């Protein structure tokens, strides 16, 4: 009789499970956008609530009926395009060859980096246009957030590099020049009903054992040693602990991507979605917001980067849904 087997405990696809270098997520891949516009936008996670909407999925057994949906509210204050970054040819696309910075940068930006006191933007634009002809391979936009406009008690902005959609590099360049130094709203990037990817750093849980971290089975009570550990650390040879052995260590605080989150609502009036007394540990929504179906990685107040869906679903509704009620009851308890 063949020996029984079962899949290993925990996926090795996310190893090594170590702490993220920064709370600011790093986006390493972008979809191929057809229109010339930004493909991503940052925001701050305010919290979760629930709404009632009309189910518009064709194959759903509750189609046309009112259903309850948990949603995440992300506050998205406008960002400012502070610089244009030009990358080299396709063979050297990972090396930035020049940058063009905006004039009259925000004073809060000095909390993040040193800004030049004397800067000739015209000379930088002239140099960039010369490089676009033969050496440039891509054009991206550097933006910084404005946390002062949100309910966060912080002043230091985050600087992110966002991809510009479209194929001709000159079209990207013209879009970047027009946006340089100006505010960009989330409504300029996304639409209601569309799907996005939410990228953020998850909630940190510190050091955990193999049972909590990998899901290994708790051993019987008659074992001589501890019960909440692995039965063996591996074979005699090779004389080392292999990477596939579940061990204790850091759990949480990892960068993760949650794919295909539907934008159910976008608005400028935060009172529409703010609970009585404000969101727990966040407060009221003061600026534009995005309502996503389901949960997103990270804790309250954490930076979440929204990106146009890399692998969009097929056969799903992409038009704005009909929302009948938004739960704004108090979350303060008592």
TrEMBL record:
UniProt feature, compositional bias: Polar residues: 321-334
Residues of the signal peptide: none
GO biological process, one term: translation
Region (Disordered): 1-26, 312-334
Transmembrane annotation, as ranges: none
Any GO MF annotation of the entry: rRNA binding
PROSITE patterns per record: RIBOSOMAL_L3 (PS00474)
Biased composition (Basic residues): 16-26
Highest rank taxon of the organism: Archaea
GO cellular component, one term: cytosolic large ribosomal subunit
This protein's UniProt keywords: Ribonucleoprotein, Ribosomal protein, RNA-binding, rRNA-binding
Quaternary structure and partners: Part of the 50S ribosomal subunit. Forms a cluster with proteins L14 and L24e.
Family: Belongs to the universal ribosomal protein uL3 family.
Cited function: One of the primary rRNA binding proteins, it binds directly near the 3'-end of the 23S rRNA, where it nucleates assembly of the 50S subunit.
Name this protein carries in UniProt: Large ribosomal subunit protein uL3
């Amino acid at each position: 009789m063949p020996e029984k087997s079962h899949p290993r405990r925990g996926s090795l696809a996310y190893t090594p499970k170590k702490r993220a270098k920064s709370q600011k997520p790093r986006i390493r891949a972008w979809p191929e956008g057809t229109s010339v516009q930004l493909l991503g936008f940052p925001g701050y996670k305010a919290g979760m609530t629930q709404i009632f909407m009309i189910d518009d999925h064709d194959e759903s057994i509750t189609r046309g009926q009112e259903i309850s949906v948990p949603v995440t509210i992300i506050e998205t204050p406008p960002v400012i395009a502070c610089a244009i970054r030009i990358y080299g040819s396709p063979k050297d696309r990972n090396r930035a060859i020049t940058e063009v910075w905006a004039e009259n940068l925000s004073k809060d930006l000095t909390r993040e980096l040193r800004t030049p006191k004397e800067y000739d933007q015209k000379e930088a634009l002239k140099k960039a246009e010369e490089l676009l002809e033969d050496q440039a391979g891509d054009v991206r936009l550097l933006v910084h957030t404005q946390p002062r406009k949100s309910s966060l008690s912080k002043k230091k902005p985050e600087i992110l590099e966002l991809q510009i959609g479209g194929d001709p590099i000159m079209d990207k360049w013209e879009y970047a020049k027009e946006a340089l130094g100006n505010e960009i709203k989330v409504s300029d990037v996304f639409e209601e009903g569309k799907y996005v990817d939410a990228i953020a750093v998850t909630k940190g849980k510190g050091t955990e054992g193999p049972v909590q971290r990998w899901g290994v089975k708790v051993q019987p009570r008659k074992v001589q040693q501890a019960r909440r550990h692995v039965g063996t650390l591996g074979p005699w040879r090779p004389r080392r602990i292999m990477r596939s052995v579940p061990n204790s260590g850091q759990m949480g605080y990892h960068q993760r991507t949650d794919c295909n989150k539907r934008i159910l609502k976008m608005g400028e009036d935060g009172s529409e979605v703010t609970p009585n007394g404000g969101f727990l540990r966040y407060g009221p929504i003061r600026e534009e917001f995005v309502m996503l179906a389901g949960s997103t990685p990270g804790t309250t107040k954490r930076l979440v980067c929204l990106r146009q869906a890399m692998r969009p679903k097929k056969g799903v509704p992409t038009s704005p849904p009909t929302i009948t009620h938004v739960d704004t009851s108090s979350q303060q308890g008592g």
